[in-house]
Amino acid sequence: MSPFLITSERVTSPRFQSAVLWFNAFERQYFEPSLFSDFGIDCPAPLSRATTKRQAEYFAGRLAAQRALQALACHTHEVPMGEDRLPQWPSGYRGSISHTQGLAVAVVCHRHHYQAVGIDTETVFTADQCTKLTKAIVSAVEWHDITQSGCDLSSPQLITLMFSAKEALYKALYPQTLQFQDFGAAKLTKVSAPSAQFQIELTCDWSDAYRAGTQFYGWFQFLANTVVSVIADGAFA
Fold first, then answer.
1. CATH tag for 5-113 (out of 3.10.50, 3.90.470, 3.40.50, 1.10.540)
2. How far apart are alpha carbons 42 and 17 in whole angstroms?
3. Which of 54, 65, 77, 155 is at 20 to 30 A from 110, Cα to Cα?
4. pLDDT bucket at 1, cuts 50 / 70 / 90
5. Looking at the predicted structure, is the pLDDT value of residue 237 above 60?
C-alpha cells in the first residue's frame, strides 16, 4: 500500500445495508501526482493546477468511490467530474463523496435501492467554532429539542454532527432538486448516540417530490476527531 494511504476499508452501516461505504485515511504529506496514474484515476485538467492539498483530497475521495464501485461489481470505476463539478456516476449507480483533514469517504449504491444518497465528513468543531457557527447551523428550538432529548454527545460533537447531517442531506438531494438550500431548510428531530442514527425533516419544499415535512433517517460514526454522516432515501429500497 502507498504510504499516502494509512487505511482503506469498507465500512458497514446497519441502517443502509444496500449501500457500500468506503473510508480512506491518508497522510497528505506523502501525496504524489503519480498516484493518479498508479491507481487508474483520471486527474481533471483544472485539478492539475490546484494545490497539493486539493489534489490529495480529490484523489483519496475518487479512490474511495472506485473501491466502493468495485465492491458492487460495477464494470467501470471511473467517476469523472461534470461541468457542474458533481461526480458523474456510472449508469445504474448513485453515490456521494466527501473529505476532511486526513479522511476521504464515499457511499455508492445501485439506483434501484435508493432514490438519493449523500455522505459528509467533518472534523469536530473547536469550542470557538461552536460559538461562532451554532446559530447559523441550528435554530434555538431545534437545539433545545435535541439537547433535551437526552442525546449523549458532547456539545462540539453534537453541533458538528448536526452540521454534517445537513450537509449529507443537501448532497443527497441536490442532484435531484438542483436547488441550493441553507441550514434552515431542514431540522434534526432525533439523534441517538447508542444506535448512531438520526432523523431529519425538511422545513420547506425542496421540490415537488421533496416537500416540507418529508423525513429522512441517517447514520453516523465518530472516528477519533472526525464524524461521518450518511443519508439515503430508501423509497426504492
1. 3.90.470
2. 29
3. 54
4. low
5. no
